[in-house]
Batch of 3 targets.
Target 1
Amino acid sequence: MAPSRLLLLASQLLLLLGFSQPYFLTNCSLSHGSSPVWAVAVDCGGRQLLSVPADLPPGTTSLFFSYNRLQAVSRLDFRSMRRLRRLVLSYNRIARVEQGSFLHQGALETLDLSYNLLCNLTENMFQGLSNLTRLDLSSNQIRVLHPIVFRLLTSVHTVLLESNLLRRVEDVQPLLLLPNIHSLKLASNLFTSFQSSDLPLTQSSALETLDLSSCRLLESFGITTPVFPCLRCLDLSMSGVQSGLRWDVTNRTFLRSVSQLSFNEPLLPLDNVLHVLQSLDSLAEVQLNYVEDWIRGGLLDTLCLIPTLRTLVLVYNHLGRSTLGLARCSQLSILDLSWTYLRTLPEGSVRSMKRLKVLRLQTNFLTEVPKDVGRLVSLRTLDLNDNLISELRCGDFGDAAGLTDLDLGTNRIAKLDGCAFQNLTRLRTLDLSHNLLWTYGGTFRTGLQSLERLDLSRGFLFILHNGDFQGLRSLRYLDVSSDHIGRVQQKAFGGLKDLETLTVSIPLDYECNFRGLRRLRNLTVYLSTDRGQTRPPRASPQALYELRSLKTFTVVCRGFHFGIPLEPPEELLQTMPGLEAFAAINAFTSAPRPDTFRYLPRLQNLTLGKTDLSDLEPELFHFVPDLQTLDLSETSLRSLDFLSGADLFRLRSLSLRDNRLVTVNHTVLRSLPALVQLDLTGNPFACDCSNAAFIEWAKTNNQTQVVNAHEYGCAFPPSRHGARLMDFDTQSCFLDLGLVCFASSGALVVLTLLASFVHHFLRWQMLYAYRLFLAFLYDRRRKRAGPERYDAFVSYNVHDEDWVYRHLLPELEGRQGWRLCLHHRDFQPGRPILENITDAIYSSRKTLCVVSRRYLQSEWCSREVQMASFRLFDEQKDVLVLLFLEDIPSRYLSPYHRMRRLVKRRTYLSWTQAASHPGLFWDNVRRALETGDGPGQDAALLTGVPDPRQGPE
């Protein structure tokens, strides 16, 4: 497998491990850097947080936690962030760091604990920081350093302990012994002495930079042992007591490597400073700020005698009209006289500096280019920015033909003469921005053949003429943007065949074109018009011909406009097939046509701002399959429906700031599978259930970071105005009223259908079941009440009543003496029929059914049989006696399934077969009534079995 594929797989694995939790951060914002995995920055600054949020991504590589109220660092605060490389905890109230708090931060390279309340550094405070390179502990209240607190910081090269309360130089000894220590800053501490004899070092230190500035109690500085053989930079600015700083360097070789010395605003007498300078043999750079008294006392005379001196920085000194002896510093290569209140540089001040390469005169009161400049043959960089120069003369740069960088920005230059830069054949960078230029005077038509970068922005030029820049054959960057350009002629940029970046302001109805700019990669056009313009633009697509190499195109329209300057706009973009980034700010009057970007298949970044896109259609994005960044801020969008069907499968960043989005349909965002950053800042959200799904999605999705979601405010309803969108309680919203109504109505429909079915087909069965239940309860009550009142309940049809009265009653009640229950005689008047039937069956030992064809057709007789059957099968009691008055064939019994089932399973008595022997029939009835309740006690009772071919089976 190729190494690149292995790296890709490793990156994806790290991504899965590091970002498996949601991206939504309650009090922080997250951004991705250019690197795929290791550049994930989280910003929690300025939130007034009292603790480190628990929802920070474990894959965080940079955490900014400044300007909060954190009081202590806990072992659990950063335990999960094992890939953290930069941690900034400045400007908090941290007074304590628990032991082992950074035990899992083995990848940390920068730790900033400045501007806190730390008082002492404990033994294992920095345990685990084996890769730390920069440690900032400045501006605390540190008094005590544990002797071995720094022992594990083997990779650290810079330690800042400025503005603390350290008093003993011995405390910093462990730092000096670190193998890779390069820079140690101890400014603004309480040292009274810094003596190498107080540092019992067993070996030489690798320290290169030592800062002891602003130590106002420092009385002496002494290096009497060779402990700093590598020391190059020493800063003693604003250090020393009022009586002076005692300098004790007995052997110049002890500081033989010191090449840079800073004495800014010192509190030392001049004699002490001169003694210091005489003790250093290899000085190459000296910085002396706020020392005009020393300069007047002859300091420069001594400095200029140092043969190794190459850089002299005298900024923030009030030199006025005099440089007081600079002419002797002929060996200088760099001279910085910025912010020195110079009104003129006296002739001869720098003329002798034949090696001078860099001269900085920024922010002074110079009204002309100093005469000495034209005589500095070796000069390469000249900075005259922010002065009062109003005119450039032909001989200003005289013999300075080697000049490569010239900054004349922010002056008062109104015009240029053609000879102004005629000798600067090697000039590569020229800045004339923020001047009063209204004419170039042919300056750029000839000469300056090496110029690569030209900044003419913020001038007062009204017309760009044909050929104004034709002599700049090597130019790669040109900025002629201005609020005052009124006309750009067609061939204004002719001859700039190597130009790569162009920023220009042109009127909306411009006539120029960019023919010939075949290498142009970045074009920014500021279109301007006035409100009185009444005619549409008249430019044609030919104005942008031959821009096939263009990668970035930005159009910004200022003021009233008729739309993008070329109509239709797709003709403008047709000339840029390789375009990768397009931005149009206030350039469209409405949403672009769906085929606007049909000629831009490589477009990756698209910005449409300050335009009404309320009628935007998804088809607009069908021609840009590689789009990765889309910015539609300030475009009056009211919904995200345009994303549905937009085919933006590779889109990674979407910005919809300052629109009119009230609700966000998060399901639309699912059409963007690669989206990792979404910015909806400044929209008037509704804090109600319409956004509930989006809120939950923003909090739980593990791919897309909703930028600053915790700061989104509520605009609706008025009662929640000013509240936070993410604070809205969504739990009550997920009770779907529509679903509840659907389920309720569905259940009602089903219940209605079931009730109709039961009423039509099973109403008697249901009523019977109800009565059975009552019978069950009644039977239980009967068991408690005592034995049955009747020997038998006679169930018969009213049409068979004559037989019952003529034959059954006289025999069973009259001759045999049984107590019978008959409905016409023994039922209680006024009670429901079923209650009387139930009471009669459960008050009798037996139920005697007189079966005939009419009996089978009677509903009430059927209920009586059912109730007796329940007692038979449920209680396992032999309570049924069947007397058939007629022979009933099986085909007539088939519709009466319950009776047919009983006939198949039980014996019965037939009156028709016993007609010739009635005595035997009634004797069998007696025997049946005498039979006990056991289920098998009637097995021997077999009377009158009908012929199966004609009677019941």
Target 2
Amino acid sequence: MTSHTCQLLVVTAVLHAVQLVTSYSFNNCINKDYGKTFTCWRRTAENISAIVGDLPLSTINLTISFNPIRHIPDKSFVHLPNLIQLSLERNKLSTLGEHAFQSLHQLQVLNLSTNNISHLEPFLFKDLKNLNFLALTLNKLKVLPNQIFLTVLKLQILHLEENNLNNFSQIASAVSHLQNLRTLNVSFNSLTSLCHSNASLPPSLSNLYIQGNNLSSLGCRRSFFSKLKYLDLSFNPWISTEAFEGVDLAHLNHLRLQATNVSIIHFLNNSNVRPNSVDFSNTSLTNDSLVELCKVLGRRAKNITHLNLNLNLIQQLSSTSLQYCPQHIEQVSLSRNKLKDTNCLLFLNHTKDIKVFKAEHNHLGELVSCKGKIIFENLIDISYRYNWILSVSNNAFYNTPNLVSLTLNMNSIAKLSRKAFEGLRNLENLRLDNNLMRDLYSELFQDQVNLKTLNLNSNRISVIFSRVFSSLGKLKILDLGGNTITRIEKQGFHGLTSLSKLILDDNNLKEIDSSQYYAFSDKLKVLSLKSNKISFFTQTTSSPFMNLSQLSKLSLDSQRPYGLILLPQYFFRGLHSLKELYLTNNHISHLAPDAFDDLTELQYLNLDYCCVGAVQLQPGMFKNLRNLTRLIVENMGLQNFSKEVFGNLTKLRSLQLNRNVMHSIDVDTLESLPNLEYIDIRNVPLSCTCENSQLQNWTVNNANVQVVFLHDHPCQESTKHKFYSFDTKVCYADLGQYLCFITAAFLFLFTSFPIIYVKLYWTFKYSYFVFRAWFSEQWRRLRDEEENCVYDAFISYNSSDEQWVMEQLVPNLEGNGSSFKLCLHHRDFEVGRNIVDNIVSAVYSSRKTICVVSRNFLRSEWCSLEIQLASYRLFDEHRDVLLPVFLETISEQQISSYHRMRKVMLKKTYLQWPGSDCTHPEQAQKLFWTQLRRAMKENSQYENDLCKSTQSECEISGDIHYLQP
């Protein structure tokens, strides 16, 4: 076999072995849903073909952002005809080829925002016949070609804001034929007028955004806005009231005039606009002009329900400020004014139907008691966030008893009176986060029996006193994060029987007290304890989560200052429903192999930067996580990736191994993850050696498991070389030489075996029986029970000598007063049992084995096996069990070919049957039986005593001793 042939065989074998699992990678993109959605962010490639050239035909959604791409050439996406959404925002695009989007007939969404595009080719969108959304926001466009939208007849939404467009007539002409256009946004351009030629806006257009331009006049026909429903003219500081003279605004549902020079009162009196469609935010209203506005609304808009007065100059409201406004107003917003006091909402006394009131971003300093004030039965939502509120007095909301939502966050509340929320029995949502509160008292929430969400995040609470939440039996979400909590009293969470989400992030808790969780053990689903001071220095014997059997999400990230340090062995016991676990940034020194054993339902595990230094994960660590679908083990210092650790994750789909220190990854382990779809090995120092040759083949030649940015992965030895392309031929050549050697050895054995078999057939067969007997369980059992032998002697003889055995041996040993019990094969072997098992049983059930040796005996296969077993006990077990009896004289030359028998003769003294040629046969035979009986009774001393007592009868010939009477 040639070396080249051997190499081909090896390559074929290796390829076959590693193709059990398939993988794929893309140069500059990451796949999100198996071949359909791709994101290509923050890459260094400047050529669009380098980014999208390797994407599959199945691509539907594609996002290419934050890249240094400057030009899109013709036919860049021709290989992606199934694209439906394409985003090219936040690149450095300045030019687009006229046929850049050729063949994208299915494209519906195209985003080209935040680039440097200053020019569009007339037929750029020619093939985009199904396009319905187009964004060109934040570019440098000055003009639009007339034919630019000629073929995109299905376009519904067009964003052109933040460009340099200055000719509205050109814009109108470009979009006039778009019969499906609903939204046109040309905000923050350089338009000075809406004057246009004969071309009119499409009748389908309902939303027009023109804010942030330089309009001084509209310059349009009366019917220009007649089809619009939403018009935004905000932040056009030069536009005045006179600009609307003769313009039809009667069909508008919403009009915004923020930061314009329009006198809102004059505008309402001199236009046909419906007052209830106008947003009065940022229209320079003052305390006095507000009264005038209400008078107009009272005359012309009695059905108005929403009154937006944000961003005005209103500083103070009296009980008469809104007396002329329609009584059926449901929502009033006074955010971003300069209010210093709400005076218990007395200014709303004429709006009996008020439901929502907002006064955000004002200068409110306190909320005083409103007991005895006008009751607002219908008010259900109040928001005072982003004010300067320092204190909330008792009964501050006494006159709004039916509040459902109360927002007081982003203030400076340091004093919250114990009865501040008295009477609010219908309250469901309460936000007090980002204040200066220090203490919580049991009386504070005693009336909030229907509260469902309570946010106390980012205050200065240090202790949770006993029974402070005892009335909140319906509370589902409690956020106590961002405080300085160091202690939770024994019944601190008493009463929270419906709580499903508890946030205790960024506090100073040093331990997890299991007794705290009894109150809501059956309901709690989410528990966040990240950024506390929890740590363990010794193993614990119990879990603090034993009662949280329904918990589905647990966060223990970033414990301060040094992390958890040690993860106790039974720490997660009881969390049988947990699906998400976060342990990032914890500097754990040791992970016990059974740390996660109880988390049988876990689906997401994040261990990013959780450990200290290099980590050797213990075998079986993830053995019970059979439902895990996403595992993040980034930056853990992992040194190994073995099947013993990761092999049981049969449902794993996403595996992130970034920034670890392993030099190789076991392909067999990857093959044991049948559902793996995504693996990230960036910044793992893989060596470009033969050790990783199979891994390279696995990552390059397969197609189901995405290896993120494989083509950028450098070799550890040299960053100039890439892992996916390092030369592996030498690896296959070495294996080929070994394969050739193995093949040659196999052929030699294959051709030699028949010859060896013919020549050594009996040796093989004999060895087989000995091997089988040696491993027999019965052998071992009988060895252990030797002291309770069944027989005195097992008689091993050839069938040709059976007459002597039956006529001489048996009568003299079992009769004549001898009373020995003999084992004879024809009499005592078990019928139907394997003959080898019978022989083994006979040898080990007898104290002695008497071999009746004759020339026929030496030639017998079964006799040879019997003496082999008996001699094994003699030589290897050092047991004196063998008694050779020669029926006829056999010369040393004749016996030398029987190696085992010759070895016995050199070791043992044996008996010679005195034949008829003996001088005194009767006396000799009598002495023979006497010596044989004595040998059967004796043990190790038999040989010496026998020789001494019969010295006169012994004749020595060579190394063989003959005992003759």
Target 3
Amino acid sequence: MTARRGRDGTLSSLLLLAANLLIPAAILVFATGFFPYKPLLSGLATYDDVTEYGSPPEAPFDRLIFMVIDALRSDFVYAVNSGFEFTQSLIRDGAALPFTAHATSPTVTMPRLKAITTGSIPSFLDVVLNLDEGDESSSLASQDTWLAQMKAKGTGKLVMYGDDTWLKLFPGTFDRAEGTTSFFVSDFTEVDNNVTRHIPDELKRDDWNTMVLHYLGLDHIGHKGGPRSPHMVVKQREMDGIIRQIYTAIESEDHLRSTLFVFCGDHGMNDAGNHGASSPGETSPALVFMSPKLRELKSNLQSPMPENESFQYYSTVEQSDLAPTLAALLGFAVPKNNLGALIPEFLPFWPNKQDQLQLLMRNARQIRDIVLAAFGQEIFEIASNADTLTESKADYQELAHGWKRLADSYGRNTGNENHAKLIPSITKWLHHAQDVLSSMASNYDMSRLFLGQAAAAAALIAAVIAAARCANDKAASFIPLSGILLAYGVMMFASSYVEEEHHFWYWATTAWFAYLGVRGFKRGNTSAGLQTLSTTALLLATRIIRSWNQTGQKFAGEPDIVKMYLNTNPTLLWCLIGATYLWVHQNLIYGLTGLPIWLSFTTATGLVLAAFTFKTAFTLEDAPELVTDFARYLLKLNFTQDASLITRARAVFIGLALLTAVTILFMLARRRVSVGQNGPATLLTLYTLLALTQSRPQSIPLYLLFNLQHRILSSSSWLEENLSPVEVSTTALLLQHTAFFALGGTNSIASVDLSSAYNGVASYNVVAVGVLTFVGNWAGAVWWGLAAVGMLTQKRRGGDKEVGGGGLWKGHVAVLTVFVAGSVAAVMAACTVLRAHLFVWTVFSPKYLYCVAWSLGQHAVVNVVVGGVVYWLGSLEDDA
């Protein structure tokens, strides 16, 4: 019998290991087929069609200053209450021509800069590469861009100051450059001062033809405090002052008289100050062309404009339209991979209609070459049988036929009058081509998609067999988990359900607690009064948690507890924050009672006080309107009042690391660091302090509610009588997801919170920032992952031992692996089936990235590795 159990245990362990290795393998294989790089035309475009169209018309400008203000949403410049007062005066005067530039998803810096400089549509995979400062695989050094064209002109040097993403995208392109780290969002001032200090000297030089400036401070303010941060208008005025400085130099310096000054945002931001998704605020950056020469166009538009909820001010253009427009205005060939159309407002710069027509025809011919490269010459054959074409090829053939009609009309027509009639037709064809090519399906590798799904399916089968063999429970206990997984899998095929996934977890958790409560009544294990009270408390806490932060897409701006009560009543907020830290302080002292009383009290008090004062100082810097006078007074009383935020954060992290090390050493020595509780509970308290440090202040009181739920679930009346081992794992699964969404998480890239990603970090470090970003966004999920370890440790101490060749921990991991493998398979299947869906890049692809984070970060690292270590340490302590 013992030998059989040993064989069963070995087999289940091997199956569980195989499942957890297959999951990351499936993710990697599927990703390489779902996010491929699109093939591009190589080399630089040239004017090789002079015989057909004649010599290119003279360009009105010979020098370019291109200024990017990161996250410059359109209303920041154009609406009332804007800090860009000088810019608005130039719009009224006609010296500035404003637009709203449409930025396609993903609205993060790297893919947006690719679109701006090449005129093409970048790969969605760039949203991942955008996070790695050291990545060079996304370089545009070999691609045709307006930077490469300006360098090829040989009329001057290229200089760049600002976001070092430009240096990563264009290695070796700039003759003078100084980059600043784009991800250090705690810095509002130095990151911009390092750019501004170069401007006066460069404006006096005449050895350059292109100057790129990229300011990051406004984006950092958005991430930290949102678009209505008190720092926002101040930063806008600072940027407006720089614009005044540059424009004044263009007016006064002879060598700058023919300089085109363009400033724009690479993307916008949503109401939370984040970006990455496709909300109107994120996809609507400002775009302004400036020069005294623009007065010739006599635009003289109204400025400022009334507030517009859609953020659409003046004319709307695509970001890709910049490339052909700069080509015409600066006198170089349109980049080869461009999908943009020349902005028609600039055509009056060329009074001769023949010149206007020539510019548009060159733009159209360049786009025709992309169609030709994609489908070959046969697509242009009029005699092709349209019935044999796919829908996609039919779109391309329509473009080809439209081009042939334009070319024939161009060849037949002469004279300004006839050309004037042809110009609208070319413009219409350009925009149609832009729509068709921009919506072109990605070049999916279907074999990799299917192989990835097969690996995920194999992982699911292995996990199910392992769970059946090693989980210490009845078969009926798996029914709720099966229902959750089935409903979740079906939900992944509907975009609205993916966007509003939080409702699924809120309702499932509520139904689960109600079911457990009713079942407890039927079993009669505890008194009816206690069962009613505990069930009611669980349901009430869950209801409050789900109302704390409105997330998702459709109702993100609706009233919630944070907006209605905490943001408007800072006194209530800080009372709740203070109560949370006091609770942690009490738990920490209790968790260190194995130490001398003076040491445990002093250590716990010092660490909690350091964490509280850091959070107060952080909020005072980030959102001072939330800090009460009493909190400011307490901060002044503290002897560390002059310490920097970095020093404060490091003090908290060092203190947590030391106490964690002490607790682990006690557990390794098979001793208790606490007289009244086990080691995993003490480690949970220490992590709670880390979670509070990494959470926004408005979310801190949620941990009081998490603690209430945990106290009820880990009480003997529930844990020993109401919850079997599989049901403990099911509960942990539900509460991990509920906590993630309650703290503000969504399936949108824009909800990734970077506000606490640089706590204690003086310079960018991809590992440190990555870990802090994960903890900041998955803080609640990690909390419940560790809480589940404590609950399983209690069950082991209560008598649940090895069954079926497995154990409590192995069964817990097997249950969680079943869900993870099933969810990965469902998301992959949805992405494959709906790869031509309108929302594939705005809903399903971000969901896939979140699925990767849940599978590798939360499951593999937190639940399996960290949880396994803590459980093992707890077993050493119990064996003492």
